[in-house]
Specification:
Blueprint lengths: L1 E10 L3 H12 L3 E7 L4 E6 L8 E7 L5 H9 L2 E9 L2 H10 L10 E2 L5 E5 L9 E5 L2
Parallel strand pairs: 1-4, 5-8
Antiparallel strand pairs: 1-5, 2-3, 3-4, 6-7, 7-8
Ligand V0V binds next to strand 4, helix 2, strand 5 and strand 7.
Length: 136
């Protein structure tokens, strides 16, 4: 069901500070940036190397009641999620539900760049927040 790793998500308190850090320290640059009001995040996708592989997603809170704000309060900055590319997010979610895993949403929501997304609860996936991404 999983085609490849789509991105790894890192929670950061301030997106501009983080972008500066990744550029200056690691030479990594933004390929996409947006605010997702539904998720309450300001986010940026960074390419690694030639940009053909998985991306790094920096996630900063856009609102104090967002999932990222809560994560930062509890855990501090750091790895927040691991996202896999799937061909059909509804079919994959249904298959995982049938195996007893809790999906966070009944129907997919809007993710980066018009993708459709859902998540497996981290308590059902060995402590990892697993995101399913069906690209636009
Ligand atoms: C919480 N927990 C995590 C975790 N977040 N464990 C691993 N990784 C995480 N990111 C643990 C937490 O330490 C608690 O463990 C337990 O889960 C709490 O579960 P809960 O009370 O049911 O839930 P909350 O309120 O802590 O929220 C966690 C969830 C929330 C995962 C439900 O963050 C959520 O709805 N996430 C999905 C949306 C999201 O993450 N959006 C931001 C990215 P103990 O203490 O009980 O052991 S947006 C995005 O990725 C986009 C737009 C995109 O890629 O396109």
């Amino acid at each position: 069901e999983f085609l490849r790793i789509d991105h790894v998500g890192v929670a950061v308190p301030d997106l501009d500070d983080a972008l500066r850090f990744y550029a200056e320290m690691f030479g990594m640059h933004v390929v996409h940036e947006e605010t997702n009001e539904d998720q309450g995040v300001r986010e940026a996708m960074l390419a690694v190397g030639d940009g053909t592989g998985p991306r790094l997603q920096l996630l900063a809170p856009a609102r104090p009641d967002s999932a990222i704000a809560k994560f930062l309060d509890r855990s501090g900055p750091g790895l927040q999620q691991l996202a896999y590319t799937v061909a059909d997010v509804e079919a994959t979610a249904a298959a995982l539900r049938a195996r007893g895993l809790r999906l966070l949403y009944d129907t997919p929501r809007r993710g980066t760049a018009g993708s459709r997304i859902n998540f497996v609860h981290p308590k059902d996936a060995g402590g990892v927040l697993v995101e399913l991404v069906e690209p636009a």
